[in-house]
Structures are given as C-alpha cells and as structure tokens.
C-alpha cells in the first residue's frame, strides 16, 4: 500500500503501554488493520492533538485499557470500506472523530486507522486546504460548532463572552461567532495576546487575573458565555454576567473536573441563568459542516490558529511535551 512503511504489511504507530509522561509513547511497527464490513480503513495523513489525549496518557481515563494507540481524530484517504462503498469510496478525502477512537479502540496516532463507517465524514473541499489545516479541524470544529449552536443556541446580535479565549476552541469560537453576527469578547491572562484575540474576531478583550467580574460589570454585559477554563473560573464567570444568561462549560483547561470547595448553586447561579455543557460525540461531529467551514477558511473569513506542526509520528514525544507545558500556541498537528 502506498504511503506505508518500507514493509508494506506494517505501519508506524505511537503506542502507550502504561500511563506516564510523554516518554511512555513507543514508536512501533504494527500490522495494518483490516476493516470488517461496516468499517473503514483510512490512510491517516494528519491528526490533531487534544488535551483529552494528554489526560488519557497520564492515566486519568479509567476506562481506557493499555496498550492503546491514542488519538480521537484523524484525516486522510479511504483505502477500503467494505459494505459502505455507495457512500464511502476508495480515494475519498475524509475526516473522523470520537466514537471511541483512541479509547475503546486504536485511534489516529498511526499511519492507518480503522473506524466505523458511521463516524466518517467525506470532505469534498478537503483538497482546497493543506493536510495540516485539515488535520486541525475535526475535533476543534465539532466542539466549537456544537457548543455555540447546539448548547448556547447562538444567534445574530448575541453578546458572547469567551472565558479562555486563546485556546484553540476559543479562537475558533470567536471567529465563527463573529461571522455569525455576534458581538464577541474574550479573555486572556497575557496582555501580549490581545492582538491575537482581536485578529481572530474578538471585539473586546479582558485581561484575566483570576477574576473578571469587576471588569465585565462595567460593560453592557453578555447573554451567552463559553467557559473554557473550567471549575476554577466558572463561579466568577457566573458572577460577571448575572441574570438571564446561558453559560456553556466546554473545556477544563484548569485540569480540574470538580469543585474542591462546597459549591452553593443557590448563591452562585444568578436568577434565570442556565448552565449547560457540550460533550463531543459522533452525532456532533457528523452535524458539523466541515465543508462550509473550509470554504470560509479558503476565502479568509475564518482563521484557524495552528500552533506547531510536526512531520512524523516519531515527533509525538515533543508534541505532548509542549502540551504538558501549555506551550502549544494553538492547535498542534502531526503529519504522518
């Protein structure tokens, strides 16, 4: 098969055998998997890196059994699709995400992956962008799109506050919301990143020193909030925006999943303010209009903030080290 390792029967994969730091990845030669009926063999051309994969590598995903090839997303070319040939053809450019990838079965950190046909999206516009751009999109865009339009039900003229604006999803959300006609504000801890936020669609920037409530209360306010940081800032975000607001928690950049103190809903949640979440899923991925978003990227109305791009699966250690150190600078992508 074209693109495989020197031995055509094998592929290169990054495998985790035990939890730990980036050094636990082992670069191995493995047999190229064969798809059963209803599944698809994809020649992976690129994959994005996600914090959930870092957590899994560290041992914080108790349902994941090692050894495992991580990776909850991938883009590439179909090489085989038994039983699904009417919709998925050999040579199609495709994207896939979620559905147990990298958790219940081996995922995208390899030259090939096999996934259920129901979680594969043919990307007609895929040849209009580079593999590194396409590789950055599946999970980032489905999270952004789902959080904005399914969970927050974003509408034109809404006032959206993004807490944690320099995350890859935060930057994408700013651009998409701005294109949709919303007023967008975003936060950052670092003043030097203000221009980055404005370049990606933010109309207003708040410098976050741990609390932004006092700053936000001096403005016209917001009716929608995208909370990317998590439980360490959620209470302050609620205080900042007050009543009759929708707040969606979609990220946990703070690396904490529960309140460490006694969270009092009656005191912390303002009247008529609702809290929701967005969880990535196969349905959410399939509902994401990747082709439409790619057209926006091509025309320049949607920017994708790619951090570092690595060539070769053997760069996985360096990539995860940067993720551990929070130095990604945007969505990281590995080209296979």
Please provide a brief summary of the model.
The protein is an alpha/beta fold. It contains 11 helices and 16 strands.
Give a topology summary.
Elements: E1 10-16, E2 25-31, E3 39-48, H1 51-58, E4 68-69, E5 73-80, E6 93-97, E7 112-116, E8 120-122, H2 131-136, H3 138-151, E9 159-163, H4 168-179, E10 183-188, H5 194-199, E11 204-207, H6 213-216, E12 224-227, H7 231-241, E13 246-249, H8 265-268, E14 274-277, H9 282-287, H10 290-299, E15 306-311, H11 316-324, E16 331-335
Parallel strand pairs: 9-10, 9-12, 10-11, 12-13, 13-14, 15-16
Antiparallel strand pairs: 1-2, 1-4, 3-5, 3-7, 3-16, 5-6, 6-8
Helix pairs in contact: 3-4
Order of helices and strands: EEEHEEEEEHHEHEHEHEHEHEHHEHE
Task: Give the helix level as a range of percent.
Answer: 25-40%
Radius of gyration: 20 Å
Q: How many beta-strand elements?
A: 16
What is the 3D shape? Answer: globular
Mean pLDDT: 93
Largest sheet: 7 strands, mixed
State the helix count: 11
Q: State the distance separating the first and last CA atoms.
A: 15 Å
Q: Which structural class best describes the helix and strand composition?
A: alpha/beta
Content of β-strand: 25-35%
Main traits of this protein?
7-stranded mixed beta sheet; 25% strand; 336 residues; 6-stranded parallel beta sheet; single chain
Description:
The chain is built from 11 helices and 16 strands. It is an alpha/beta fold. Strand 1 (10-16) and strand 2 (25-31) form a beta hairpin. Helix 3 packs across helix 4 (168-179). The two termini are 15 Å apart. The mean pLDDT is 93.
